[in-house]
Amino acid sequence: MIKVIHDITHRMFRDPAGAMQAGSPVLLTLLISGEPPESKLYLKIQSDKGGQIRTVPMHETVSPDPSFNAWTASYTPSGLGLLWYWFELRTEASPAWSEGADNGEAEEGSEPLLIGCDSQTHQAAILDSPHAWQLTVYDPAYPDPDWIRGGVFYHIFVDRFAKAGPPVRMGGKITRSDWGGEPVWEPDPNGEILNNDFFGGNFAGIREKLPYLADLGVTCLYLSPIFEAYSSHKYDTSDYLKVDPMFGDEAGFTSLCEEAKALGMRVICDGVFSHTGSDSRYFDIYDRYGDGALHHPDSPYRDWYYFEHDTWQSWWGIKTLPRVNKEIPSYQKFITGKDGVIRHWLRAGASGWRLDVVDELPKAFLEKLTAAAKAEKNDALILGEVWEDASNKIAYEERKDYFEGDKLDSVMNYPLRRGIINYVREGNAFGLAETMEIILAHYPMRVVHALMNILGTHDTDRIITALAGQKLGPDAGREEKAAVRMDADEWAAGIRRLKIAVVLQMTLPGVPCIYYGDEAGMEGYNDPFNRRCYPWGHENKEIQDWYRRVIRIRRESDLYVDGDYRAIAAHDGLYAFERTKESADGSGSSHSSGGSRSIGGLRRQITVTNCSPQHQVLPLFGLWRDLLSGVTVCDEAIVMPGQAMILAPV
């Protein structure tokens, strides 16, 4: 029986183990046993662009295990994008096997054994049609906005976070005086949900709360859309160059950015460029502006939209959100030009953009958008909303190639959110470890260190509800979601689980993002129940204090800026990993640095969590102190059910 091993998470098999720089070699090694005598192995590499396949002969090398033979090959990619690779085993028994004329090509008609990645086990296997391994090749010269590394995002839904000053009243909009009341969720008499109730959150309110955010440890505010729009959520833009009057004005936005910067925080905007609102100066469904696309065939915005007889294409079938044609040069110039939307708000004080449904932006448009941002501020941060593995995303029949080095700095880390919830609620440690392995194998490290690691967003259930609330079925309606509240037992479980989730979020590679109010213990299912008002004066202090404590540990150590990651346990509900970094002086001396000590020139801290119903034991070497509890352990850590530890060597 032939056995094969190729572990992409280990540099013994793939060096570098993750994404690779264009023009640099990758060394690939396969261990094999039980193969017939006189066998030969070949590396097969296929470019995602064009589909051409390169065959590279492999050579025997010293094996780390005497029961296996080791074969290795080196390959240096010249272009950017994705490569797919697998191995071929050829024997004398294979018909017409040959090294070919120049690069190991097999003669036509040969039937080699194919070695690839089993899609179920993710291990190397001999298969009839193997799933190839992925190599991501990126441009190493891409400017890296390293100011976000080691920081903490805070996601603010502006209308619901904090208010200051007199309320703004506008026609067609409901101004609420009951801060903390239930957002309107029932349809109107026409069956429409208008999202037109406002609680008064504004820039002035955010400015008043900046000291709180600085004390929490936040370094970057991510604001939901701030531009003029009809709704409270503002994803139906009316005017990209004007702040919504309910929130303030452009001067108020600039003041917010300046005051935040004085406290060590930056601000990024939410860019919604796949669609506009129907009640906008561009589409103008009510003909308010006189030159909107709907009523004026000669409108300068007419070709921005997809008109079909007497109707138009809309975003996901929502008629109030007409879909924009991003290929139109005038639209591209409006967004990405020298005086366009992207550069305008960077000049006004923003430090970057989060791009809504970025997969709906064509690659060429996204390249122009990013180039405009970098031209205005070379350290501008460009993040994309992607719900899957962003490295190989295909949307609208186009491979997105986000990480080549000309499109995105990083993305929202929805796969990690799913992995953390599944682990903390169900105990699936292996699944979370596997999620991390895929991210580290597919994403460039510059992307990894800037990932927006979310637990909750304006599109998801509140994290404490996701971890301990009732699991409502897919057909649950808004009436049911509005009525359900967590009971005392669910709250107790939710707090325990949330503490573990926060420790993971704050210590795994990437940048944690707190959805406003999660640190205060807000509960609720998805929109609009995850968009209630921040409960000022009624926060859950236990949860809030835990966030502060764990963020302080994060901010005190540069291990969480760009330290390496390695899983050391992922079984039976036990998940542990270490973050490591070489000492600044490169010596083997022991010295403190943000709570970690150097051992043999390598500084390290270990996060260990237990989501099983029984205690677990993690073997260690030497003395370690739990930075959360202050307890010191020797040679092993006994981790109780529901416990999290952040261990630093003593």
Write up this protein:
- By secondary structure, the protein is an alpha+beta fold.
- It is built from 15 helices and 38 strands.
- Strand 26 and strand 27 (398-399) form a beta hairpin.
- The chain starts with a strand and ends with a strand.
Helix content: 10-25%
- Structural class of the secondary structure composition? alpha+beta
Number of helices: 15
Q: What is the top-level CATH class of the largest domain?
A: Alpha Beta
CATH topology of the largest domain: TIM Barrel
Number of strands: 38
The CATH fourth-level homologous superfamily of the largest domain: Glycosidases
Assess the beta-strand content as a share of residues: 25-35%
Distance between the termini: 48 Å
Extract low-pLDDT stretches: 95-109, 587-594
Give the oligomer, counting copies of the same chain as homo and different chains as hetero: single chain
Strand order of the largest sheet: 28-25-24-19-16-13-30-29
Q: How many distinct folded domains?
A: 4
Overall spatial form: globular
Named at the architecture level, the CATH assignment of the largest domain is Alpha-Beta Barrel
Task: Specify the biggest β-sheet.
Answer: 8 strands, parallel
Blueprint (SSEs and pairs):
Blueprint: E1 3-5, E2 14-15, E3 20-21, E4 26-33, E5 40-47, E6 53-57, E7 59-61, E8 69-75, E9 81-90, E10 113-117, E11 124-126, E12 133-138, E13 153-156, H1 158-161, E14 174-175, E15 197-198, H2 203-208, H3 210-216, E16 220-223, E17 227-229, E18 237-243, H4 250-262, E19 266-271, E20 307-308, E21 311-312, E22 314-315, E23 318-322, H5 329-336, H6 341-347, E24 352-355, H7 363-376, E25 381-384, E26 394-395, E27 398-399, E28 410-411, H8 414-426, H9 429-442, H10 445-448, E29 452-454, H11 463-468, H12 478-483, H13 488-507, E30 511-515, H14 541-555, H15 559-562, E31 564-571, E32 574-582, E33 592-593, E34 596-599, E35 602-610, E36 616-626, E37 632-639, E38 644-649
Parallel strand pairs: 3-12, 13-16, 13-30, 14-15, 16-19, 19-24, 24-25, 25-28, 29-30
Antiparallel strand pairs: 1-4, 2-4, 4-8, 5-6, 5-9, 7-8, 9-10, 9-12, 10-11, 17-18, 20-21, 22-23, 26-27, 31-32, 32-35, 33-34, 34-35, 35-38, 36-37, 36-38
Helix pairs in contact: 6-7, 8-9, 8-13, 13-14
